[in-house]
Structure formats: C-alpha cells, structure tokens
Amino acid sequence: MTKPVKVFILMGQSNMVGMGKITGGENSLENAVKNKKKYSYLIDAEGKWTVRPDVRFVRFMQGRGLLANEWMAVRGGTIGPELGLGYVLGDAIDAPVMILKSCIGNRSLGWDLLPPGSERFTAVKKDKTGAEKTYVYAGYKDKPAFWEADPAKGKATEPPPWLGKDGKPIDWYAGKNYDEDTADARKALADLGTYYPGGAKYEVAGFFFWQGEKDLGDPVHAENYERNLVRFIKSLRKDFNAPDAKFVMATLGEAAKGTGGNEGLILNAHLAVDGASGKYPEFKGNVAAVYTNPMAQGGSGNGHYGGKAEVYMDVGEAMGKAMLELLKDTK
Description:
Structural class: alpha/beta
Strand content: 15-25%
Helix content: 25-40%
Number of domains: 2
CATH superfamily of the largest domain: SGNH hydrolase
Largest sheet: 7 strands, mixed
CATH topology of the largest domain: Rossmann fold
Number of helices: 9
Distance between the termini: 22 Å
Number of strands: 12
C-alpha cells in the first residue's frame, strides 16, 4: 500500500453512535433496501450485504473500548451515519479510507465534550426555587459543571468539593469525553497496521460531528454553543496535527430554520460556522453544516428519529457529499 490512509474521525452523541434499525419492520434498513429498493449499493446481486474491502470501520466507545475493527458492511443491530458517508467517500476517494468513530450518547459540548482552552464564565439563571442567581460555569478540566458565584470574586470563585453519595470525589470533569474520545481515536492511529491492515501512513482528512441534543437542556450551554463549537473545531485540528482537515457537522433534524428557543440557538450555531453561508471567514472552504430537517421524516434527535434507518442513511450520504465538496477545494 503506497498511498496514505485517508482517516475521517466521527464524534458526537447518540445519533452519531447510531440508532437506525437494521432489521425489524417498516423502519428498518432491510425494508428500505430490499422492499423499497433504496441504497442499492448495500447489497450484491444475490441480495447479500456488500463488504467494502477499501473502507475500514473502526469504532470506540468510552467505557467499553474497541467495538469494531472491520471492513465496512452492514453488521450488528443498528447503524449511524457511517454507512452512508463511508460508501460515498469510498466511491470517490482514490486511496484507502478509514472511518474512525469515537463517541457515546448523552454528552454535551458545554460540559462533557468541552474542548481544551475553554475558560470559566459567569451566567445568571434561576435556581430550584425560581430565584435568579449568578453561577460560574466550568472551564476545561473544572468540576462540577457550574457552581454559585461569590459576588466579590465572580468567575474567580473556586468550586466546592464535588462528592458523590458515598462521600468520594466524582470522577468527571469538563472535557472528560473530549479527552477520552480523542485518546481512543489516537490509539488507532498510533497502531495503524492493526486497524488498517497493510497501512503504514495516514492523513487525518476530515472530521464529522452530529451533536447538540444534550446542550438543549441547559439554556446557558445553548447560548454558548457557537463559541464552544468554534473552539471544538480548532482544538481537533490542533490535537490531531491536521490543520487542513475538513469539518462537516449535521444539524438536529427537528430544528427548522426560524425556530426559537434553545433549539434555535443550537441550529443557528451550526449554521454560523458553515463556511459557505456562516460568519467565520476562516472556515470558508473547510467547514460545512448539513441541514437535516428535510431528512428527519418528522422525527427528533431525542427520539432517535424513531429508529428509522433511512434518516441515518440520508444524513450520512449528505454528510459524505458535503465532505467531498470541501475536499475538492484542497486539490
């Protein structure tokens, strides 16, 4: 193998993990392919699932370690967007491809995935009694997620001890998922031949990100999502020594343009960093946001789109095509 492996790293929360059903009823991938005749590239002439000998799928999950190290194919009980984007990339790129997924569900960008360099800040919100108070929100490596501010100290207020019911310190901090998800991805890159047989060199060509549901639950996280997302993109490129790597994210499927509230804040943040229509000149030609509302079939991310495999396939294909458009600008 003479060409470097083109590596694409997938991060996010539960919908990036994948909740699309492979078998079992109308919403399944099996039904979409074999009865509705969609995604014909997934089956061969005999009706069996195809295997991509040029696209490697590697998957890690925090707390569970390595979950997959195999040539890309339909396997297991559920799918995420990796199938759709993996086939799109594999068909177009004249080089070996690795889809490297490292994520777990129920994680927020404002806390669990908070990138390095994020600083503390203060925000006013209501406590459990409805009274407005000023809180310090965690910077990278701080814990807990927020604590009440001393009026005289502001964001310099130090957090109280964060203890569990057993009286022991809780083993979590702002950015713990960022650290562990990226560390797992680096394991595969450090031992490339184990994860891509015959591979000797690699290039981190791009990142995919599908996330935001958890941040909807905290208005402060929603308000600061855009700032965190910008830093997240920059941190990944720095930490993987891939300053030219492209970045493609998918919006939350239930979020329609013009919507308000926390949902609107997250959507607007996703769209703001889009290189073609957003507000960051530095992201032109290297960041893209895929607007998934038309693909969501009326479902929501919190409901995992009803397990509809078509949603995960359509979003994956769209993300893959968006990545190819960005890669064209590299050549």
